[in-house]
Amino acid sequence: MTAVELIQKKRDGRALSDTEIKAVISGYTGGDIPDYQMSAFLMAVYFQGMSDAETASLTELMRDSGIVLDLSDLPAPKVDKHSTGGVGDKVSLVLAPLVAACGVTNPMISGRSLAHTGGTLDKLEAIPGFNTQLDLATFKAYLKARKVALIGQTKDICPADKKIYALRDATGTVQSIPLICGSILSKKLAEDLDALVLDVKCGSGAIFPDPAYSEKLAHKLVQTAAKFGLKTVALLTQMEQPLGVSIGTWLETREAIDMLAGKPVARDFYNVTIALSAYMVWLGGLAPSFADAKEHVEHALQSGAALQRFREIVSHQGGDISILDAPGKYPAASHQCDVLAESSGFVHGLHARTFGQVAMLLGAGRRKKEDGIDYTAGILLHRKVGDRVQVGEKIATLFASQQPIASHLVERIQTAINVATEPCQPLPVFLGIVDENGKQVWSHDRYFNG
Ligand code: URA
What we know:
The protein folds into 3 domains: 3-49, Transferase, Pyrimidine Nucleoside Phosphorylase, Chain C (Transferase, Pyrimidine Nucleoside Phosphorylase, Chain A, domain 3, Up-down Bundle); 79-325 and 429-449, 3-Layer(aba) Sandwich (Pyrimidine Nucleoside Phosphorylase, Chain A, domain 2); 332-420, Aldehyde Oxidoreductase, domain 3, CATH 3.90.1170.30.
């Protein structure tokens, strides 16, 4: 079949065979299918979807477009976590050293900030000198030595995803469940894992603002991973407001360092990090129950073992560890601006997507892939949903160095804040859990206070 015939078949809602999907993927990566035809194909998938068999085939072909790591000589269990992306999500910075300190081998390959969502790599690179561009041999050596290394996508792993994702980003086809599934799982399957824990974000700052789609995505991810024999669970977590109290690279790295150093942090950031870490430990077979795994993880945090592991990661990947002991020495942003409450009452909403977009416009993220990052830029939250606030009190502070803070950005943040007179409960942190048995409502009250 020609490329046009394959596009027409998908456009008309018919399922493609393995051979036909292979023709599209290898045709595009090999340069025989041009961007305009691939764009049409992606749009056809966006509207018509893919069957489970097609999604699995796409995932496998994307995985096999590059190197599939062989980590069989590394100690088991090898477990990773992947988040579908959100605002203020600095979880990986704490989780990676934390699970390694508990005995999990965590080969973490992360992404960069794009649009309103932040990326782990940019947060790590906010630490002066930190090198995320290790070659695969060094990555493996570091994993052998201390069970954890944090690197960026290399050109050798899933090159098909790199090329296709860039096109999806430019053609409005990111929000497609089978395409997201293929993109995420191809990369995770290339890591040679024993288990995978997914953080599927739900709410305004998530990839799908409608939580019903996040839930569908979680099911598809878990079912597709199961076809490859990869033990996977997906936690559905809150992304209606930003996670924690900071948005922006260095601000988030600093909040992560605070958690590693045992300082009090926001309840949602703490609970999500501990729950995902405990799932990794439990799924990896290092604890007999979730409750035991949680205890193990909290002990590794409180004892300083996770912080020590983070110091080793930073030091071995070329970063300046003095900043971990004295984060206050980090260069301050040249401009800052407080956003004040316009009325007294309770915070009912902090629209995560708008906060993420404004943080990006302040310089904390990228509008386009090629854009640079202002590590000092971002937003600090002084209130979370459910908190009381008096008129004139600070709700947020905006930071930037490369440009003064424009008044329209302050106005935009005001539109993202909803204060009303009636009291309001804090948002639930966990919205459910999806495993091979389907979705369950996960009662975090059993494990977490508040
Ligand atoms: N994250 C990914 O890695 N791929 C997607 O398609 C969406 C989110």
